[in-house]
## 1
Amino acid sequence: MAKLSRKTQLTTGGPVFVYVDEEQDKIVRVTPIDLDDADAASWEIEARGRTFKPPRKTTVTPVTQGYKAMIYSGRRNLYPMKRVDFDPNGERNEEKRGESGYARISWDEALDIVASEIKRIKRDFGPGCCVIEPSSHHLWGNVGYRHSTLFRFMNTAGYTYGDHNPDSWEGWHWGATHMWGFTGRLGNPAQTDLYEDCIKNCEMIVFWSSDPETNNGIYGAFESTVRRRWLKELGVKMVFIDPFYNHTNGLYREGKWLAPQLGTDSALALGIAHTWLTEGTYDKEYVAEKTFGFDEWADYVLGRSDGIPKDAEWAEKECRIPAYDIRALAREWASRKTMLAAGGLGGWGGCCRAPGGMDWSRLMIALITMQGFGKPGINMFSTTQGAPVDSDFYFPGYADGGISGDCDNTFGGATFAFRMFDGVTTKSMTSALSTAAGVHINRMRLPECVLDDNVEWWGRGFVGASLEQQFHRYEYPTPGYNRIQMLHKYGGPMIGTMGQGDRYARMYRTKRLPFVVSQSIWFEGEVPFADIILPACTNFERWDIGEWANNSGYNPDSHNQANHRVIVFQKKCIEPLGESKSDYEIFRLICERLGLEGVFSEGKKDIDWVRQMFYASDLPKVTSWEDFTEKGYYIVPVTGKAPSEPAQRWFAEGRPEKLRGWATNLPPMAKPDSSGLQTQSGKVEFVSNSLKRFGHYDTDDKERPLMPMYIPSWEGHHTERFKKYPLAVLSPHPRFSFHTMGDGKDAFMNDIKDHRVEINGHYYWIMRMNPKDAAKRGITHHSTVKAYNERGSVVFAAQLTERIPEGTCHCYESSAEYEPIGEPGKSTDIGGCINILTPARFLSKYASGMATEHCLVEIEKWEG
Amino acid sequence: MKQHYLVIDIEQCFDCNNCFIACKDEYVGNAWPPYTDAQPRHGHRWMNIERTERGAYPRIDVAYRPTPCMHCEDAPCEKTHPEAVIRREDGIVLIDPHKAQDKHLTKSCPYGAIYWNDESGTAQKCTMCAHLIDSGDAPSGPRCVHSCPTEAIKHYCLEPAEMEQKIKDEKLEILLPELNTKPHVFYKNYHLFNKAFVAGGFLKGGECVKGADARLTGNGIDERQATDCFGDFKFDNLCPGDYTLYSDDKAVRKVTVPEVGATDTIAFNNNSQNLGNIEL
């Protein structure tokens, strides 16, 4: 083999060296990055008589390790295609979407059809009728990310954005913000410098609906694994509250596993609070000084206001965890400096995406507040962030607007847009439609916006400037605007990721949606429902720039998941496969046909935007463009790091908040000054003033009371449906794919034993069941089963395991494959989309967050 | 002469599969003559991760055993197919792709580490990434080792005497020692995969007792623990046999750890015992 050249790339699962045979234009090998002696030194922490220093190597997730199989996949879209029975000038056969075949067409024909449809729709229907819907996490890179290239195109071409819900923040965004603010982080607390605080002071960590070894924070690969290992070596005790014996628990090995019945985590939390209240083992001084409405809430917990003491025995009846274990946990917790890891980052994921997510998130705040939130060793800290890196060195994240500078729909306005665009030689491209006065479509209500005459919802997902924006009412069609005429789908599938996912299949099969374009790398999910398929390439086939784990935006300083700040020149490793093109080039060519090419591209290629972004960051202060692009990455030194200031210490110590970095440019407007929290009282509000002012708690917002309470789940064991569907399925974010990336695509991931199981040549998604539940139904290990409820039915491979208690099942969400065996949208799926069975319902009527983490089903043997 | 060895720590493996996928990254679509043909896209597990679950809800644990070719000194494959199998002086065992057209070669390995490639018509297996070791090309060692985030898999090139010392110091074990194949792949903390535990919790007056005395005797052991805040104790590394659980010298429970069959696959009828919560 010829001498290989070493390139650099970056993904959701870590940065990599890419070894390329340039003669054959072939990627040979993808590996983690070994830092060399020329790279900046790593941080060191002295704690409990030892010195801790991270490995001089980056980590990768299995998805990233397997990227080559996604690049070289038989499922790649290599040529533009047209649905065989689609004629833009005649019969469109919209109802046949999902069944028809495709014929290869030229790029010219494909682009002409798309451009002429856009022109026709804009002329005949006006603005707001072309909707673009990207997936959440697609290809890493600040130029190529959806907030960047896609938004620049969307705003140039005059499209409307299908608004994303804060899909991993839900309960924190819609619930926690009303208890402690932090809207600028969508309800999650900062994690700055908390690892050092933890390793020096913390004695116990309670992981509650939190599995860092599966979810890696979000983009941090296995960077925090070694940090937890050190905590274990120092004797920090860990407790895991999760219906599933998760992989963090498994690697720690010595933890206590408490598995609440699905939907009852809030009851368990109240049982702990009751124990503290009755035994007097909470921080009374802290509570007296720093909370609002605590006594009223305590009356509820103690049963003074409703006659039901929420004691450990009461909690046991709901959550099935023995009262003695609840009390033992409460006592140990109160006697030790304890961190609460409530989700994957500072909150985030897990239970907050389930029915009752708003109460669970608020009760997590209640518990950590009762123990003195912000004091040394006592915090909301999931161990996945808070590495002591220099966060003041400026490099933007993907949510900071990239080449769009769209300040309505990204964080470009906080800092970045002003560094990137001078307004003379280069201009941002903001939205005229996805604005306050424009058109909004909620991603989770896209099918209804197509199929129903009128749809309404409250609040948008990513509105962090104030609490009040959550209460804005939206309706569709938007007054003054016409209805959707065209959907431009981009990136991963909605069917596998949204509640009651096959609604989207039904949405495609109607004349109410006259034109569908799918811009996609792979032929998967709902791509086979498009009229025109535009083949995109991966980021390994084009230029980009980005920083590992740095999304910024509503998750500022998220780069502190990784042990080193790694800023990567994402090199084009190979030419795009087949006739596929970069997303930037596809959008540019559409703009060319719309007469907007100059406005969109400013005459630049993707590499030119990469260079512009380099100069908009702090990189030119420390390196040259030539050196940076030659080496391919830059490690930010820790020598410039600000002195350690553990997050929320200011609050515990009654000091004003010292805003730094990103936050100084966008303080939440609701906070009148730097002292106290963002709530009306400036305190942690056990009775929420913002809900009292604006909420519908006293009319019909049944699931968001003023106080955090236990409200039996509407998808739980107290419902009538439970009699028919007695198995409760937990469906968290997947371990071996990142949303749908990594799954399907004929990729290596399919061969992972705990990801899919091959039975008679088909790779089935896995449903984990307790052997007792399986035995009752005659189900054996690795046999095919059908899970169903009134929403639909999906076939899985059963995995029998003690990792899940009787009555509960476990099935990761986000299958990339949707394979209906009959009529699309109305028949059994053998692809493995558990989300066909999860609710499309919002958290509550006025909190339009998704609640897809739980669903009730029945399961039976399936023999095809 | 220095020999190549792999040491795999069961305690640090949590089934992330980076080793399995890195192996595919290296070999699928890439032939490395004369070491091996390309690995087919699906089906082969040159690094085969086996799993065992121990105990019963809620006192369980799960162990994984990454299982590559053992690079045996007395390799059964070499015995049955001397023309196709080469054992190098440095201890790496390779299958010559041009001479391995006999499908029976796959049956010769008691560890199931040899796979048949229908596309090329050859038997194949883990090469310990000998092409990277020999060339020094990055990452200059086995890919599974390089991509492991917990250093659960380590590669050593040592004199046999140095390895002997390591085996003693780290209590390393081998698979199927009764076959005398002399593997160059060793396991650390292997009891987590193939031995049993006895676990439970003590209650007094319906409350968990922290710091209670728990003692397990029998079958040649006598171990003592203080219970944790949940009243929990866990005795590990147990062989099948009869034991007695004591607290403060009072016999609490007779426990039998039964014999079970092979633990090379997922075990539901595993012999670890969750005794539940016991009122003292």
## 2
Amino acid sequence: MTAATVDGSPAAAPEEKPKLVVFFDRIDAYNNLLLPFLAIVSALIVGAFIIGLTDIDRLKEGDIGGILTTIKDAYIALPTGALGSLGGISETIVSATPLILAGLCFAVAARSGLFNIGATGQMFAGGMASVWVGFTMDGPGIVQVPLALLAGIIAGGLWGGIVGILKARTGAHEVITTIMTNYIAGLLTLWLLKTEAFQQPGKDNPVSKTVSDKGRLPELFFWSDDPSLRAHWGFLVALGGAVFMWWLFERSKVGFELRTFGSNADAARYAGMKPATLTTLAMFIAGGLAGLGGATQIIGTQGYATESFAGSIGFDAIAVALLGRNKPVGIVFAAFLFGILEAGGRKMQLETDIPLDVVLVLRALIVLFIAAPALTRLIWRLKSEGSTSVLQFRGWGA
Amino acid sequence: MELELRGITKRFPGVVANDDVNLHVRGGEVLALVGENGAGKSTLMNVLYGLYKADEGEILIDGVPQHFTSPRDAIAAGIGMVHQHFMLVPVFTVAENVVMGVEPTSLGGIKLDLATAREQVRTISEQYGMHLDPDALIEDMPVGLQQRVEIIKVLFRHAKIVVFDEPTAVLTPQEIDDFFVIVESLKADGKGIVFITHKLREAIKVADRIEVLRRGKTVGDADPKTVKDTELAEMMVGRPVDLVVDKAQHEPGDVVLELRDFTVSDPSGRVLVDHVGLQVRAGEIVGIAGVQGNGQTELVDALVGLRRVAGGTVHLVGQDITVATPRDMHRHGVAHIPEDRQREGIVKDFDITENLALTGYYAPPLSSGLTIDWKAARTTAEHLVEQFDIRTPSVDTGVGTLSGGNQQKVIVARELSRDLKLAIACQPTRGIDVGSIEYIHERIVALRDAGVAVLVVSTELDEVMALADRVVVMYRGKVVADLPRASTSHNEVGLYMAGAKESAA
């Protein structure tokens, strides 16, 4: 029976009571901060056990005190490594910058109802376009840098836009097509890096020509002479991206359409919005943000392109967006947290014997606890089931 | 068997859904439980059915307290429920659906014994005069017969008390009469019936006793032999209610909407709307009556541009708008209150301001250039909330938290609060409270009096009859009748709706 659409289904208790729902809403607002916080705490606790387990020698000896010291060392080394010095902060920012932009990329698509796991490919596209601008031009910086960033946005946007068009025109599901376009972008990058146009003269391995000095993003800590402070203006660009996303969804007409389409596609159609255009546009904007992330990696952090400059950023960014609840501010903070884990983790590996992989485990645990709010609630005995709206995406072929 | 609910209280955080509710029903008796949406009827029945656990109070069967922790317990105790939304597998036969979960087996439990199942289904069906073929497929059956399958399912599980949740909502007037005959035969067989409804006339017609629920409390009972529907309505709502729509005579003006040979088909080419001709004049309400699924939905969808028109033309004040998009229609001054409020009419995650801006956000004064002026939108929203009496703490409240009636008022406010030529209202009062129904009906009539052409589509015959100046009946995609309201009757329109009569419309 599908015809009956009269409401008042038995389970819809909140439907009956506006007051109740208002109450839940308050919890939910609170959950927006509380749940991620508890997820992080849970992850740190479980992570402590795992760190303990990695210390096999002491474990064999039954040296509990020693294990506790190891755990303590690890959890002190992490934040101090990441934030205890200007160098640490710089590394944290370097790690966080592309994560912010790729996280925004995922979030823009997600709030438009699309599950874009193609940030990696879109970063490749953006990075390769910007590296080309970077090595073919030689200043002035005030023209070249914006141009390289713009090239990154456009290339990433087009790469994402292809997925949008495929979905809008043929119904091809974006999860499948983004996986495929990731492969294509990765292999295309590899091929390009071996062509005469891109490959650095005199090199055998796939490395691009170097971006001219004037084409690099300026250093963030410009007052310091320390060359190891790698943080660059890409961070400001990323913050700009977050502001853009805020403006897009909170102020602009198009953003309202995207949000409507993402929340209720039928209502969007009813209201005269155009689903096909919106799908394409959402993927273009998302791709543009990832492309910008690729560009900042190239003309900011690295100065040249390799076959792996996008690394696992595109996928880590999904976790960042999830942790940040697809909100720009949340994403900035989540990316920062991941940056801390990464920068701090490297330091931790140097100073203690704990392997860097522990950081990956911690990150995975955070994501796990975020993705399973019911589990986190259970652990912390949070009673309510709130109306936590977990990401919703339309099904296959929708 | 006697069922008694004693002092049932069910609290949800912040609200008391059921407050010390007492209820009893005996075998061979029909109890009607009436109340508005949100009065706590569903909560109460979910407590009875083991889906919720009551905070206080007890359920007694023949004086023995019961502890239901799941519907399984309730069924075992002899309580059966026929839900508003049927739970049938369309590709299974009647017999298969009935025995699902309690299948008779042979060969030591390995083999499904369908022969026995069919026989049992046939026996029950004949006993209560339901005339069901155990081998018929559910998907081939009209809604009225599907409901009988649900009833047999309940009886097959040896229910002694049968609860019907809004059973007549999806039935045609004739099917409703048939349904009442079945209820009578169940009663004659000694079953106790609980009949949940908000349709007062039905409660009066079929019940032995009427219990009224308001805001979680039983506010009184009534004897159907003596009570008037206005009295019941007053008990339900808590104030005097006007059940008749006040409508002065009004002379219609020029033709605003004209459909000629209007045809809509599904992607496979099946014709859903079949060469429909229809005119709506300024200052006139045309009501389209018909049982759900006879092409009304598709007619409206195609008319407003949400579906492709397969043939024919649409003219709005003489202008051809056959291929107009929903946005074009909005620009042309056409309002559309969609049939399915939750699916199309609102975005639940959005607040009231955003929902009020949903269709008009694209143009001044709500937006300019690339941006939406949310300050202006908010001011407009505050104004509309007041003007349309939307009960909400603020315009920033999520629309999903409002009651159905207030959600519908949001849609009505958004769609009707601008200069219009034509208003299309589909199921404008489905599933909402009496107060909101009154209000929305008044608005629609006011629109007509202001010279707007109004097309009302409703499967509630009462609604069409109350509002329309002209009644158009659709049956299997065709317009089978076009009657002036003044010279037709419920009965006549009902016959057209059932396809029993065809005029030269």
